[in-house]
Write a structure and sequence with these properties.
The complex is a heterodimer.
Chain A lengths: L3 E5 L7 E7 L2 E7 L5 E5 L13 E3 L2 E3 L6 E3 L15 E7 L2 E5 L3
Antiparallel strand pairs in A: 1-9, 2-3, 3-4, 4-8, 5-6, 6-7, 8-9
Chain B lengths: L5 E6 L3 H13 L4 E7 L11 H6 L12 H6 L3 E4 L3 E5 L4 E4 L4 E3 L2 E4 L3 E3 L12 E3 L3 H13 L2 E5 L3 H12 L3 E5 L12 H13 L3 E3 L4 E5 L6 E4 L4 E3 L2 E4 L3 E3 L2 H5 L8 E3 L10 E3 L4 E3 L7 H15 L13 E2 L8 E5 L8 E7 L4 E8 L2 E8 L5 H10 L36 E3 L4 E2 H10 L5 H8 L9 H12 L20 H10 L5 H7 L11 H12 L13 H5 L2 E2 L5 E3 L10 H13 L4 E4 L5 E6 L4 H10 L12 E6 L13 H12 L8 E6 L13 E6 L2 E6 L11 E6 L2 H18 L6 H8 L1 H10 L1 H15 L6 H6 L11 E2 L2
Parallel strand pairs in B: 1-2, 1-7, 2-3, 7-19, 9-16, 10-11, 10-16, 11-12, 18-20, 32-33, 33-34
Antiparallel strand pairs in B: 4-5, 5-6, 8-17, 13-14, 14-15, 21-22, 22-25, 23-24, 24-25, 26-27, 28-29, 29-31, 30-31, 34-35, 35-36
Helix pairs in contact in B: 1-8, 10-12, 13-15, 19-20, 20-22, 20-23
Classes of the chains: A mainly beta, B alpha/beta.
């Protein structure tokens, strides 16, 4: 594991998200209503919409372009839509958010 | 330790019983130990698709809704081919014909209905078949292989579908019917006549106004004799004279029955341990033979079996379609006009189109349509909503499409569309794709079709067409929208109930609201959160703290997201009037941020497209410095006030339309509304500002100002309704504010003014805005009050640093 510190939990709005720029593209970090943090590639499996701009509800986000709903834990689209956004591991320790970028 | 589960026994393995179980398992998967008894040998299948199976257009396996493995997967004990012969209510045990006994804690009776067999001589002869189950269909198909002449007794929906199916199997088919025309319960005489002509062209023979006296034959059927002595030959007789609730078992157990098993609004019988759903049920004096009500009942029964105890079934109104390929027919409500009713008729014999609407007190009571049924769902919706149609009386017969309906080639007849014809122009979905999805994925509702095919899920202009395809594929029994429409899947509450609760219970935050109304999800979804946020904002101006996390991205970052993730910036240009200095500033800003596309919009403004999110606050800072404010081109809010040049320049202008437009825009900008809101002011009746397709339009005349409301361009072009004429500009401002406030306070979120007015009726809006002068003044005052809190320029705030996290990355890593 290669944990990289990316910021404070408080920097991500609850029910919101922030973007992390990486060499391989944007990663969206989401914070759920109960303060869990998830990370997905910032591209909807449908037409590449920026998931970080969607509405976060429960452990899901709705893509702003065509309203696909994506599971934050797995990156999978909610049925009947089919597709998956690559996910990355996260952890929060003492209010600091860490990201492990999957190659 | 394993908890002993409550025992639920279901009598009836058909659509109603199993749908109830599906709903129950969704809510409470582990509560019950479930046993199902079915008299037929098959697992649950879609009975409404028997006709296509009979005609050979479909195979039985395509109609199975729950296969054997479904029962296994949910630990349901299934007994097929077993008749329950007794319910012992004292000991809570059921008994089957072959001696099996099963105890129950809760019992669900879903025994459906039986075909009516006429009490005439010869009904027991071989070759006489009812039409109710897959076994009947198999018998009919076998008979069709060896015999030639079939007679169907009964010219109702079921009888005609059977006759059509047998004809397609190659038989000579005659239909015998008691009445003067077929389907008299769904069609009036003219519509029935058209249907008869169409079916005769397909080779069916009709014997109308005939009563069958006896079926002839010694060891098998040979013919039929009518009361008047006439005889016809037949090798096969199909009884399709109607259905009757199957209540024998319930009755023998002493459960109160009239025509059906009597249930209350929770689908409970007079025995509190016993529930009942489907065609065997009598609810508020009504029995139903269609699928839509049955699904609503299943939902309610499941809710109570799961001990949620919250829902009530309040009866259904139903519409009918005949499932005969190539024939478009629709009927709903009570279409036989009584003395107090009025009839609106349209008959075009050359096109084979007939429409009849029955009105009472300006409300639709019934509709019959033949040949062109595309507006069936629209009429049905108005019928159920009790919409006042007096204002659209002149054109209602021509349907919703007469004002132009973009995106699906203006198709009016679903039956005659080719499978390759495009239905949904947004998502490129063809008719064949939709029909296949309905059959293969076993879809019953518009929402399901949208989810699986995407048809009608974008702009919605093809919704009527998709509903017609659903109805055509599933026949009369397709499930329309439930009579009470919940705001979204997170709740059972309707828009009205939510708004009422906000003010009555003094609810002032999203979590508070969701808790008070028992939201099923912890923090809602993308559909309900923006709606609730708007309702709270509209109810408590200045007090409620807008929740940016419940705003769609465009409203959250005050710019329009584009397909590549960049944004567009549209500054407000008051009344469409600008100056060389303003244009220079816009050009300089466009240069500075290398804006790739600059476009003039339809609302007399300038659109700068292709701006990255990070650049937005800086660009807005420059805009603000040049004197611009946000154009709110991204919001469910006031968009533009379009004007023509008016009396200042135009030789025809009667009033200062440009100046009035600017004053109106200064008053209304920044206001949040249920959907976007557009205004226009034209200086004379030539109407160059196109005021009569705006939400609020003013047409200046020499003697004053005409006010028009409820128009829009776009998907369904709708011309405004004339509201009233006023004499002064001050009155225009007052009416405008009052109208916007009424719309904000009462429309559903995401309703534009057009569908809102169509729902509540123009008469209502006139009463509130024109007739009730004191009420108008109050609405206007409330509008101005809430504007005090919403005219802070969001661009200025963000250029100064508000919500900075929205526009910058959290981190950059290598």
């Amino acid at each position: 594991m290669n944990w990289i510190q990316v910021g404070k939990l408080d920097d991500i709005p609850r029910q919101g998200s922030r973007i992390v720029h990486t060499a391989s593209g944007e990663i969206a970090l989401f914070r759920s209503v109960d303060d869990e943090v998830f990370a997905l590639d910032n591209r909807c499996p449908h037409k590449g919409g920026p998931l970080a701009q969607g509405i976060v509800h429960g452990k899901r986000v709705t893509c702003p372009l065509h309203s696909w709903v994506i599971e934050l834990e797995t990156g999978s689209a909610v049925a009947p839509d089919v597709g998956c956004a690559p996910r990355h591991d996260t952890k929060v320790e003492s209010g600091i958010v860490f990201l492990n970028v999957k190659a | 330790m394993n908890k002993v589960k409550t025992k639920l026994v279901v009598i009836g393995n058909g659509m109603a019983g199993i749908r109830t179980l599906e709903e129950l398992l969704k809510m409470s998967p582990d509560e019950y130990d479930i046993t199902v008894f079915g008299a037929e040998l098959q697992p649950n299948y879609n009975r409404i698709l028997l006709s296509p199976v009979l005609s050979g257009e479909m195979e039985f396996k395509d109609t199975v809704l729950n296969d054997w493995s479904w029962y296994k997967d949910h630990n349901i004990k299934l007994h097929t081919g077993k008749w329950v012969s007794k319910i012992d209510r004292q000991h809570c045990v059921i008994e089957t014909e072959d001696g099996l006994t099963v105890p129950y804690d809760r019992l669900l009776i879903a025994t459906g209905s039986n075909p009516i067999i006429l009490p005439i001589p010869g009904v027991n002869l071989p070759g006489v078949i009812a039409y109710r189950s897959i076994a009947d269909v198999e018998q009919m198909q076998a008979a069709a292989k060896v015999s030639k002449r079939a007679v169907v007794i009964g010219g109702g929906l079921l009888g005609l579908e059977a006759a059509n199916g047998l004809a397609l199997q190659g038989m000579d088919v005659s239909v015998v019917h008691l009445c003067d025309w077929p389907m008299e319960r769904q069609l009036d005489k003219v519509g029935g006549g058209l249907l008869k002509d169409a079916l005769e062209k397909r080779g069916l023979k009709f014997y109308l106004s005939r009563q069958t006296e006896s079926i002839l034959g010694m060891d098998k059927v040979r013919g039929l004799r009518f009361k008047d002595g006439e005889e016809i030959e037949a090798d096969l007789v199909v009884m399709a004279a109607g259905i009757r609730p199957n209540i024998a078992l319930a009755k023998s157990a002493g459960i109160h029955c009239e025509r059906g098993i009597v249930v209350n609004d929770t689908m409970q019988t007079y025995d509190p341990k016993i529930y009942s759903v489907g065609e065997c049920v009598q609810h508020r004096g009504q029995t139903y033979g269609l699928v839509a009500p049955l699904f609503e009942q299943a939902k309610v029964a499941a809710n109570h079996l799961a001990e949620y105890g919250r829902m009530r079934y309040e009866g259904s109104s139903v519409s009918t379609k005949l499932k005969v390929t190539g024939i478009d027919l629709f009927s709903a409500g009570d279409f036989n006009a009584g003395p107090e009713d009025e009839e609106l008729l349209l008959q075009d014999s050359a096109r084979g189109v007939y429409k009849k609407l029955v009105l009472r007190d300006n409300k639709l009571r019934g509709a019959v349509m033949y040949g062109d049924t595309i507006d069936g769902p629209w009429y049905f919706q108005m019928l159920r909503d009790g919409t006042d149609v007096s204002e659209m009386r002149e054109h209602i017969l021509f349907g919703q499409v007469h004002l132009g309906d973009a995106g699906h080639g203006g198709a009016a007849s679903v039956a005659n569309m080719a499978d390759t014809a495009e239905v949904c122009g947004c998502n490129g979905v063809c008719k064949g794709t939709i029909v296949n999805a309905i059959i293969e994925k076993k879809l019953f509702t518009l929402e399901e079709v949208r989810a699986h095919t995407k048809a009608s899920s974008s702009c919605g202009s093809c919704t009527g067409l998709v509903e017609s395809i659903l109805a055509n594929t599933l026949g009369g029994d397709y499930s329309t929208k439930p009579s009470k429409k919940a705001l979204c899947g997170c709740t059972e509450s309707t828009h009205e109930e939510v708004r009422a609760a906000i003010t009555k219970q003094n609810l002032k935050s999203l979590p508070q609201l969701m808790q008070a109304l028992h939201w099923k999800t912890p923090d809602g979804c993308h559909s309900c959160r923006p709606a609730l946020n708007f309702y709270l904002l509209s109810a408590w101006p200045g007090e409620y703290q807008d929740d940016s996390r419940s705003r769609f991205i465009n409203e959250r970052v005050h710019a329009n997201i584009q397909k590549d993730g960049t944004y567009s910036v549209i500054p407000r240009i008051w009344g469409g009037v600008t100056s060389p200095a303003e244009l220079r500033s816009i050009a300089d800003i466009a240069d500075k941020y290398q804006v790739p596309t600059v476009k003039i919009t339809g609302g007399q403004r300038i659109d700068l497209l292709g701006v990255t999110k990070e650049n937005l606050p800086k660009m807005w800072g420059d805009m603000v410095a040049a004197g611009f404010v946000s154009g709110h081109a991204y919001g469910k809010s006031l968009r533009t006030v379009k004007t023509c040049v008016g009396s200042e320049w135009c030789r025809f202008g009667t009033q200062d339309s440009t100046g009035l437009g600017i004053r109106v825009e200064k008053m209304t900008w920044g206001s949040w509304t249920p959907h976007k809101f557009k205004i226009a002011v034209s200086g004379c009746p030539r109407n160059c500002a196109e005021a009569t397709i705006k939400d609020f339009g003013v047409v200046c005349v020499d003697s004053g100002f005409e006010i028009h409301v409820g128009g829009n361009g776009g998907i369904k072009v709708r011309v405004t309704d004339f509201l009233c004429k006023v004499a002064t500009e001050a009155e225009v401002m007052e009416y405008c504010g009052a109208f916007m406030q009424l719309y904000r306070e009462e429309a559903h979120y995401l309703d534009r003014t057009a569908p809102w007015i169509e729902r509540v009726g123009l008469a209502y809006v006139k009463q509130r805005i024109v007739e009730d002068a004191a009420g108008r003044v109050e609405l206007y005052a409330r509008f101005l009050e809430s504007q005090r809190y919403s005219q802070d320029d969001p661009w200025k705030e963000r250029a100064e640093g508000k919500d900075a996290h929205e526009y910058t990355p959290l981190a950059t890593i290598e």
